[in-house]
Design a protein that fits this description.
transcription regulation, alpha/beta, DNA-binding transcription factor activity, two-stranded antiparallel ribbon, about 300 residues, WH-like_DNA-bd_sf, DNA-binding, globular, D-Maltodextrin-Binding Protein, domain 2, LysR family transcriptional regulator
């Protein structure tokens, strides 16, 4: 029978499509991974991997990999159950957080969670939501905080709060002092955004279409801080979340909000975990704390 480690190597090949990167992702040498995959193929009596560039799984390999992912998730949950014992709000929960949320909300959440559940530990990883959805499905994360929408019937999403988005620019931008601004006033204005892997990039595209503004493709930011700094320098306008603007690390020291008639742009933030997760009640309790802290800040 295949070993759990061999199944893990097969999943890594499907995820990375490269022997070297797959080996790195599971912390083994490439020869070890290659040899174990060959042994897996011998044990099962069928070819699982098409060795080319990129490396692909055969149809049977893909089917086995899909089932292996479920086995790996189940094993992770078995370990988690054993670690946490009888108290569901104890042990370590692996929480993925979007970098457009985590730094400006999680400090408040961590303080409250530690006060309410002192035996609970959070392993917090920031990352691109699309990448972290894959980690959540694969069992490498227990839950996530990310903007909606969430795609995939195998994931449960719990809407937490709606966060206003604000259009900002340099303090000396000509439109800052103009009264009674409308969306039409921003036609042709350059707007900065994070790179296209972020949900905020797609939302910025839609807002720019509504305003007739120009989304700058050559100056994509790597963080909300970089957007604020570029906007403050006059390179373009930026669409920033309210929590960021109210945070100690964000703020409005180098940018100004535009007061626009009819402006009501916002984003919805959700907690996400796998459907049927063994500790769904614990994840829901964490989600309630996140929502309460966000509402308090935004009130």
């Amino acid at each position: 029978m295949p070993t759990l480690r061999q199944l893990q190597y097969l999943v890594a090949i499907e995820d990375t499509e490269h022997f070297g990167r797959a080996a790195d992702s599971v912390n083994v040498t490439q020869p070890t991974l290659s040899q174990q995959l060959k042994e897996l193929e011998l044990r099962l009596g069928t070819k699982l991997v098409e060795r080319g560039r990129p490396v692909r799984l055969t149809p049977i390999g893909r089917e086995i990999s899909s089932r292996a992912r479920k086995v790996m998730r189940d094993m992770e949950e078995i370990r988690a159950i054993a670690d946490r014992g009888q108290n569901g709000m104890a042990g370590t929960i692996r929480l993925g957080v979007s970098p457009t949320i985590g730094p400006y909300l999680m400090p408040h959440v961590v303080v409250r969670l530690h006060k309410d559940f002192p035996d609970l530990k959070l392993y917090i990883r920031e990352g691109i939501p699309a990448d972290q959805f894959a980690e959540l499905r694969n069992g490498r994360l227990d839950m996530m905080l990310a903007p909606l929408p969430v795609l995939g019937s195998e994931l449960h999403s719990e809407p937490l709060f709606r966060e206003p988005l604000q259009l900002v620019g340099a303090p000396d931008h000509p439109l800052v002092s103009k009264p009674a601004l409308t969306m039409e006033d921003f036609a042709g204005q350059p707007v900065l955004s994070l790179d296209r892997r972020h949900p905020s990039h797609q939302q910025a595209e839609r807002i720019c279409e509504e305003m007739g503004a120009e989304l700058l493709r050559d100056y994509e930011g790597t963080s909300l801080d970089s957007l604020r700094q570029m906007a403050g320098s006059g390179l373009g306008l930026a669409i920033l979340p309210e929590l960021y603007l109210r945070s100690e690390t964000g703020g409005e020291d180098m940018v100004r909000r535009f007061e626009i008639k009819g402006w009501s742009q916002q984003r919805s933030i959700a907690a996400i975990w796998r459907e049927g997760a063994a500790f769904a009640d614990s994840y829901a309790a964490i989600a309630e704390v996140v929502a309460a802290e966000a509402r308090e800040i935004l009130a």
